[in-house]
Amino acid sequence: MSALPDITIQEVCPRDGLQIEPTVVPTDLKIALIDRLSALGFRRIEAGSFVSPKAVPALADGNEVFRSIVRREGVIFVALIPNLRGAERALEAGADEVNFVMSASETHNRVNIGMDHQGSLSALAGVTAAIGRRVHLNATLATAFGCPFEGEQHEDKVLRLIENYLRLGAQSITLADTTGMANPKLVRQRVKSILGLVPRDELTLHFHNTRGLGLVNVMAGFDAGAVRFDASLGGLGGCPFAPGASGNVCTEDLVNLCRDIGLNTGLDLEGLIALSRELPSMVGHPVPGQVAKAGRACDLHPVPLRLTLTD
Amino acid sequence: MSALPDITIQEVCPRDGLQIEPTVVPTDLKIALIDRLSALGFRRIEAGSFVSPKAVPALADGNEVFRSIVRREGVIFVALIPNLRGAERALEAGADEVNFVMSASETHNRVNIGMDHQGSLSALAGVTAAIGRRVHLNATLATAFGCPFEGEQHEDKVLRLIENYLRLGAQSITLADTTGMANPKLVRQRVKSILGLVPRDELTLHFHNTRGLGLVNVMAGFDAGAVRFDASLGGLGGCPFAPGASGNVCTEDLVNLCRDIGLNTGLDLEGLIALSRELPSMVGHPVPGQVAKAGRACDLHPVPLRLTLTD
């Protein structure tokens, strides 16, 4: 096993990237995608979710996906869950880690999970009691940088909910900017505060590029001490309130940025670009990532013959 | 006149945004676009160029554009020029400022301008001699953060060329990342060095979002002391080597970012978003900007009825 990278990127394309797609990607293609991703150097891949198949039909095949993917040594396959039933299904399917999710905004949590905070925290306590230490338990706080219904989320509330997560057995934490409302000033403040509660190796930041700030917020989080980030191949994913806007932070764009500024991710950028270029045919539309279109900055071009501006 | 904004954004959509468009935008639409832009608070608009109409047919109507636009008090209308002939045409048309351009990469300069460095610098000397102080003379160094043919551009060369610009009469400087090859580490270094030669109010940074780093580089430049940036409504523009990739830094995305972190731009964000939403029908295709699709982070949504993840 090589040394830890400077930055750990958890690939979330198979879960957050595909969840909003109108066309359900066939299970065998999903499995092939995850197998190719795990060959490119990721140590963590969010491979699916165990939620209501009525709410997210695109991910109803989580059981088959987790049972069929190649298990590479050193790669942790994560399953998103909203409750105990999801945790039990994830364990049965063989997930290495469950990622419990609740929203900082109680309004958003009611819409998304169908529970108030107390309901979700009780569910988390049930998950801890049932799965004990059999798998790693991560807890995500969604809408941690803003809610599309409530607006700003006060830092005191966010910190209190994180304290509840830790008290109830969460072993690591994700702060999610679910609908792309974060900005670099807020990210710096919030990360500095959270790092008073959670060591940096147990904190993941999850940003969306909805308003063009995905990589700006990653850099702000890194400046404030964060070293773990979610990203999605091709920037796949999205926000239901921003049709046409970009989705998750794009994995290969982030890896390219890290490479250019000298941060090691342990990932194969050329392999990521090649795989990302296959995504449009898989999902049936162009994807937002830029580097797969433009190539790396170090990829030089032949000198063309053309009319000059002074002809 | 109100106090100077924290950040000055020069709008370049009418020049750099439209220059690469395959469909020539009719002159009257261009004039209407510029008039609407100048009503939204810009102090600087690059309204056209005086280059070979064979090389850039999309901007062949510069004379009519400059003669027809509404001249609002306090708004400087800039014309890009590659040589003395362009400067003379710009002056005849009534440009308030000429923006001379040469590339840091001599290979790129030969392809783009048809001259080596010595040829371009002689042209600049001719421009200074001919136009004297009749209009403000800005000088742009293109490919200042990397060249698609030569690759990295050494800082010593960049600094030496800027010194030549200043010696030959340039009153302000633009560093341009012509094909989106900059990264935040390089931007910080280069801006700190250049600010040893040029006061911050006379330095503009021009970034492209080709590899998703436009706003990341703006923030890095700002952190290093820069306060003037080029941007293009809708993120219009592009790079001939990256088909499908984003263009210039998107004006409304940058203004939205500034707003969220408390920096004043003096610009009307809602007006910019409304105008940007008209661009696709003007150019015949979607444009890359995100905020015009997603709305501002402070624009809240009604709570929907939907299936929850735990149904």
TrEMBL record, chains A, B:
<dbReference type="Pfam" id="PF00682">
    <property type="entry name" value="HMGL-like"/>
</dbReference>
<dbReference type="GO" id="GO:0046951">
    <property type="term" value="P:ketone body biosynthetic process"/>
</dbReference>
<keyword id="KW-0456">Lyase</keyword>
<dbReference type="GO" id="GO:0046872">
    <property type="term" value="F:metal ion binding"/>
</dbReference>
<feature type="domain" description="Pyruvate carboxyltransferase">
    <location>
        <begin position="7"/>
        <end position="273"/>
    </location>
</feature>
<keyword id="KW-0479">Metal-binding</keyword>
<dbReference type="GO" id="GO:0006552">
    <property type="term" value="P:L-leucine catabolic process"/>
</dbReference>
<dbReference type="InterPro" id="IPR000891">
    <property type="entry name" value="PYR_CT"/>
</dbReference>
<dbReference type="InterPro" id="IPR043594">
    <property type="entry name" value="HMGL"/>
</dbReference>
<protein>
    <submittedName>
        <fullName>Hydroxymethylglutaryl-CoA lyase</fullName>
    </submittedName>
</protein>
<dbReference type="GO" id="GO:0004419">
    <property type="term" value="F:hydroxymethylglutaryl-CoA lyase activity"/>
</dbReference>
<dbReference type="InterPro" id="IPR013785">
    <property type="entry name" value="Aldolase_TIM"/>
</dbReference>
<comment type="similarity">
    <text>Belongs to the HMG-CoA lyase family.</text>
</comment>
